[in-house]
Amino acid sequence: NNNNNSNLKYSLLPTRSELNIISSQTIESSSKSVVLTNLTNTNFSGYVRQEENIPENSDLYKAGVGIQNRKKPPLDEIKGDPFDRQRVIPGFDQGLIEKQTCLVLGSGGLGQNVAINLARLGVERIILIDHDTYDASNLTRQCLGSMKDVGEKKVDVSRRNLEFHNIRSRIDSIDINLLTNWDSVVGLARKSTVIFNCADIGVMFDYCVNSLSKELSIPLVSGQSFGWKFMVEFYTGSPNKNCAFCQ
Fold this sequence. Notes:
This protein is of the alpha/beta class.
């Protein structure tokens, strides 16, 4: 371990060389490469990379002007770690990501793209809600469906095909009407840590979701698209912060 900064959380962890021995032994026991989806818990608990500058009086600093002469490199990659590229980003907390329960309202064009990226990020749980049917006109925009899925429920299509992209997340799909089953939406929101409003219902529904976010003090990400226009908004849900409908 070439990290001498005692403030770095990973200074107490095993070196990447040691971990590579473990992972290589696992890979050698199988004819197929192994994906190690639980390294955040087993080897990187509390780890968040901090950016380190190379001291100006060091030989490495004086040897050149490239990034390798100015910034200390991340730890070596562990074979089979799907989240390695996220871990090397300074300040990126993969452990925090893996604790998130994400409520996705609407499983159409926006909702399906959100779900794919959440599954690839490695969140704890994804809850998909929709009541619509996958139609032929959805094929050009709703990326989790195919021609064989036309006529099926969108949440069923999304859940089934999302498994192809899933790394570690629990995926739940719920076929209910968001308007007539608002009490169920509230109940699921109480179990969630973030809400993604991808439902194309109307401004009053957006107002209700915004109020729910404020009431529960959980973040809200809201997206809308129409024609050539697209908009994404993020609100923290904190009582003392602005929201979509604050004056």
